[in-house]
Amino acid sequence: MRTAWRVAGALATVVALLLSTMGLWRTFADARTPTDVAERSIPFDGKSLRIEVAAGDQVSLDIIPGRAGALLVQRVLRWSRGRPDVTDLWDAKTGTLRLGAVCPGSDQPGGPVCRADYLVFIPPETDLEADTTGGNLSVSDLFGKLRLSSVSGDIEADDITGAFWARSGTGSVAAYRLDVERADVEVGAGDVKLSFTSVPTDVKAVVRTAGDVVLEVPPAAYDATVEAAETDVNIEQRPEAKRKILARAPSGHVFVCCE
């Protein structure tokens, strides 16, 4: 019996050591992941800008206000096997910035670490169109018209003054502190959440398949059209009101309330 206990104890010790070693190896491997930081300044005096992000989920894009007369692009790359192939192209004629990073095999389950995080500073009054494939897209503190889209990534906006338009195939859209007259948001599958600091005149928030809609608007009379499996509407509704709200989530919940 003592021998059996000794064997069991030895096996437990071996397992613990293996797990500990694996944990240490994972920590050391993460610590050795190469990182490359780069920055680029681009002269810019246009009124509108288009940013296109290629590749998949491994590329994220954050856009914030910078100084007039220039675009500033900051990029952080991280990889565990081969250095990413980077796209960083500026077309001055069309006002288009193309960004991206691809690693072989990074799109496979359990593939190597491969990430590119872009932070782009733009003049705050610029009209912006930004498209991504699968990474997250974030925009904040801008005053121009926004047109944002993603195939499968999430979109987030904060403190926006100007028209707001957003589309995502299988991602969610969340926009806070909107000081806009018009907001037009539609997703295939995902959630939509919009919060306004001023009374909007025209709001469209649509989920085509699965997902919920949450709208927070200042107190006022609205002509609201709400279609959902479950609805909770706590605003003043008048069919003759000039302010329009369309909220739709056929299999989800629509919540509309006062800010």
TrEMBL record:
InterPro entries: Toastrack_DUF4097. Residues 121-254 form the DUF4097 domain. It comes from Nonomuraea phyllanthi. This is DUF4097 domain-containing protein.
